[in-house]
Design a protein that fits this description.
heterodimer; A: mainly alpha; 78% helix; globular; B: mainly alpha
Chain lengths: 318, 289
């Protein structure tokens, strides 16, 4: 088991290094001449050269990458290119906190609904209810978030008047007001993720229903409900939750359109604005942090499901 | 003698193909999905010729009018007929998304065949790079590249989406090729002295077509999703294109007053992605039986 974990951690580290290279190449090298790109076409050649020298972008790509990457473990992402040129981390941190709030809220909503949908679907596999949940869940999952979000705003907020239109609360608003503002975007994310969680759960339930221990439990004469509670659900749900946890990565990063729609200052919107303003250092940091979160969450989920699933545990220790 | 067996195999294969087609056209989700897609394709081809008003520039006197018999979906704040714009709005996305998917499928298949067939270091490297790429959400990766290139032309969007999808397709194809590479027919072709490119493309490729086809239909759904989202956040198609997501981006701030300028294009996007998904789901079920 220790070897399995060590191997997984090692692979994740390799992935992170590659990730930083890809992000660096895309956000810092691809723009080409940074001074020209930031200052515009009319700037003089001297001004461009001076800008590049001041920002260190006249050095070779390898030196620039090593300089940038060596600051990352300390949380040093450089400074923003847009006045007032704050440290990148100061721009990113509050946004990250906002995104985290929304992600946790959406996660708390989607897990019970998704599990319930998946269990119902799995217990009635092949029946009309199962087809219904699967088709509806799958359809909701593929419709872009901003479309779902718009319909929700229109119906729940503009027509019914139940919830605020934007997600950004007044400064100093209390917890209740914050939750109110986050409810609509959280529902939109829940709808998108519902199908995914339900499908994973359904697969787990179908497998557990098929397993020998379930047949044995039935043959022992245990009542159906007891078998389902004690054998099917217990075996199906724990690994499912670990798999579902990988979606926290999506919840943190896939939110660009939702944050824009609800005017919510999370990491997605901050990264998007950095891209619009050509603030490449903030852009790189935003993308990197989202990718980093995804890799780490996936790693933890992998290890947890290995710990929960004896089959993976034994295979891994062999 | 050998030609007879080859003939028999051929007819067996084509019978299997006919059987698959029969299953496909009898699946209700395929029929519904394909009809919706067909409807939007016809709209895209006919374009201005079937819309009641000019979707781009018609300045009717009614500005921001609610839906009525004259204007089924109302008019926007420039007085353009929303119904005409929704009908015309499928053209750009139906050009870009399939083109990006096609590019990614061709490039990804080639890459997957090569890495799956030769294995070794190239294979390991590509797998790791794909893992790292997949950690970045598709939309953010596309936004980064579009911002860095500083160009928002249609071709940039196509190339960026194709580039992001290529390694994903490659991974699927590679897995399928790994399952084939040790089979007798590949070994036989090698012993016959065939060159590697011939074995890869003429022997292995036809046998891994089903997973490639499934992957392509799944990618098409994601491509439509990506083009729409990118256009909504301002990094895809640009006004005055009547594209649905561009219409929504243009009007969603006025949702409280002119909901029809947003709701109908939103419904159009939803109908297209769900239709593509129904088709991809039924193709998957038929091919993977």
């Amino acid at each position: 088991m220790a070897r399995y974990i060590a191997k997984r951690v090692g692979l994740a580290l390799v992935t992170l290094v590659l990730l930083s290279m890809i992000v660096f190449a895309a956000a810092q090298l691809l723009p080409g001449d940074l001074g020209r790109s930031v200052l515009g076409r009319d700037a003089s050649a001297e001004a461009v050269a001076e800008y590049n020298h001041a920002h260190g972008t006249d050095r070779s790509a390898v030196v620039q990458y090593l300089d940038w990457a060596s600051g990352l473990p300390r949380g040093d992402f450089g400074t923003s290119l847009v006045p007032p040129e704050e440290p990148v981390w100061d721009v990113i941190r509050p946004a990250l906190l906002n995104s985290l709030k929304l992600a946790v809220f959406a996660f708390v909503l989607v897990v019970p609904f998704g599990l319930l949908g998946g269990v119902l679907s799995g217990l009635r596999a092949g029946k009309a209810l199962d087809r219904g949940i699967t088709v509806v869940g799958l359809s909701l999952a593929v419709v872009p978030e901003f479309v779902t979000g718009l319909v929700l705003i229109l119906v729940l907020s503009i027509w019914a008047g139940w919830l605020p239109v934007t997600a950004q609360w007044e400064p100093g608003a209390g917890v209740v007001s914050q939750i109110q503002h986050l409810t609509l975007p959280a529902i939109a994310l829940t709808l998108v993720l519902f199908g995914y969680v339900a499908r994973i759960t359904r697969a787990g339930v179908v497998e557990a229903l098929d397993a020998d221990y379930t047949r044995t439990a039935f043959l022992k004469g245990l009542p159906r409900n007891t078998v389902i509670r004690r054998h099917v659900l217990r075996n199906a749900l724990l690994p499912t939750i670990a798999v579902v946890a990988t979606q926290v990565g999506y919840l943190l990063g896939g939110l660009v359109a939702i944050e824009l729609l609800f005017n919510y200052r999370g990491i997605g919107l901050t990264t998007l604005e950095a891209a619009q303003l050509k603030d490449y250092t903030v852009l790189a940091a935003g993308v990197l942090i989202i990718g980093f979160t995804y890799v780490v969450v996936t790693l933890v989920a992998d290890i947890v499901s290995a710990l929960l699933n004896p089959r993976i545990r034994f295979e891994a220790s062999e | 003698m050998s030609s007879v067996t080859v003939g028999a195999e051929r007819s067996e294969a084509s019978a299997a193909r006919r059987e698959r087609m029969r299953l496909l056209v009898r699946s209700p989700s395929f029929v519904i999905g394909a009809s919706v897609i067909l409807f939007w394709v016809v709209c895209a081809i006919l374009g201005d010729r079937i819309t009641p008003y000019d979707p781009r520039f018609d300045q009717t006197p009614e500005i921001g009018a609610a839906p009525s018999w004259q204007h089924l979906f109302g008019t926007d704040r420039l007085g353009r007929d929303v119904f005409s714009r929704v009908l015309a709005g499928s053209r750009d996305i139906l050009l870009i998304a399939p083109l990006a998917t096609l590019l990614a499928t061709v490039a990804g298949t080639t890459l997957g065949l090569i890495t799956g067939y030769f294995k070794g270091i190239a294979d390991d490297t590509i797998s790791r790079v794909v893992d790292a790429l997949l950690a970045i959400p598709l939309i953010l990766l596309a936004v980064t590249v579009v911002a860095a290139l500083g160009s928002r032309s249609t071709w940039t969007v196509i190339i960026v989406i194709a580039a992001v999808f290529t390694p994903i397709v490659a991974r699927t194809v590679r897995a399928a090729v790994l399952g084939e590479a040790d089979l007798d027919y590949v070994e036989a072709a090698r012993l016959r002295g065939e060159r590697s490119p011939y074995v890869m493309f003429s022997e292995v490729l036809p046998n891994v077509m089903p997973p490639i086809l499934v992957e392509a239909t799944i990618r098409l759904g994601y491509a439509i999703f990506a083009v729409a989202t990118l256009s909504f956040i301002g990094f895809g198609l640009q006004p005055p294109s009547p594209d649905w997501a561009v219409q929504i981006a243009d009007n969603y701030q006025d949702l409280a007053f002119e909901w029809w300028t947003v709701l109908f294009p939103a419904m159009a996007i939803a109908s297209l992605v769900v239709a593509v998904n129904l088709v991809s789901d039924s193709v998957q079920q038929v091919l993977e039986r």
